[in-house]
Amino acid sequence: MIFHVDEYRCERCGTCAAVCPMGIIIWENRETLPRPATGAEKLCINCGHCLAVCPQSALELAVMPIDQCPKIVPAATADSGAYAALVKSRRSIRVYKKEKVEKEIIAALIDIARYAPTGKNTQQLNWLVIQGRDRLDPLVEHGIDWMRDMVTKKHPMAAGFGMEGIIAAHEAGDDIILRNAPCLVVVSGPKSYPGTTVDAVIALATFELAAAAEGLGTCWAGFFHIACSMWPPLMEALQLPRGHIPGFSMMLGRAKFRHKRVPLRKPARIDWRL
Ligand SMILES: Cc1cc2nc3c(=O)[nH]c(=O)nc-3n(C[C@H](O)[C@H](O)[C@H](O)COP(=O)(O)O)c2cc1C
Q1: Whether the CB of 220 sits within 6 Å of ligand 1
Q2: Which among 115, 24, 8, 65 has a CA at the least distance from the CA of 16?
Q3: Domain, as residue range, for 40
Q4: What is the pLDDT of residues 38-67, one digit of tens each?
Q5: Which of 186, 220, 251 to mutate to test the pocket of ligand 1 (most atoms within 8 A of CB)?
Q6: Are 44 and 172 found together in one domain?
Q7: Which of the four, 31, 120, 125, 262, has the lowest number of CB atoms within 10 Å?
Q8: How far is the CA of 160 from the centre of ligand 1 (A)?
Q9: In terms of pTM, does the model score above 0.90?
């Protein structure tokens, strides 16, 4: 059975059926227990909403024992003011201290980010954590080779991104591609899955805020990401899981400098149709 309902606890309210995204829980009336629809096993995406919403904790999925699903403590979730302050105070960090980030801290950040939504709850992302300049410098070198190739070919992106300047900075010992960060996180997913980029970006956006809350600095690695998609030697060097493409990458480390103010942003452009 795909899910089990405790008939003594269940008050037959039908909330589980109302929230099921796939509509595979049948609930008829206040007299009947909810039951799986025909073919529910194949359609269920294991999102856990049914057990998470049940007011009596009367339902559990075969793959998700209820006692392993923590209770939500309202006081422990961020209030909107704290969340707004975190979002507004987060900055892209481009000057890092040399020190590495502790593996336990990175694991804890990923443990938060894995709760970010994924298309159809597929959860197919892979987190590649590369730490240390001895590992990162060769990747930057591939990125620079890609830029040299773009400049040689007079690709419009070369001028648009100022690649000649980035190459010159590299030759002078500066790293514009990964900003000398001590750590890089590459989130990948199956090439065959159309949601890889979106899922990876949502996961990294979640990771980034979790990192900021932990006092760590991050920066989206846009140059690096484009280089991955255009320069096969870089992809080869990354050794992603078979069949995976990079969804996006993020630098991580401790900021050398602290930001003390929030820069201005453009007002949101909103078309209200109320
Ligand atoms: C998709 C994306 C790619 C980015 N790529 C880079 C990059 O390669 N190098 C860099 O220094 N900053 C990169 N950034 C950082 C942006 O420049 C930065 O978010 C923007 O200037 C606003 O600054 P803030 O993040 O401090 O608010 C990227 C940001 C995004 C969202």
Answers
A1: yes
A2: 24
A3: 3-68
A4: 999 999 999 999 999 999 999 999 999 999
A5: 220
A6: no
A7: 31
A8: 15
A9: yes
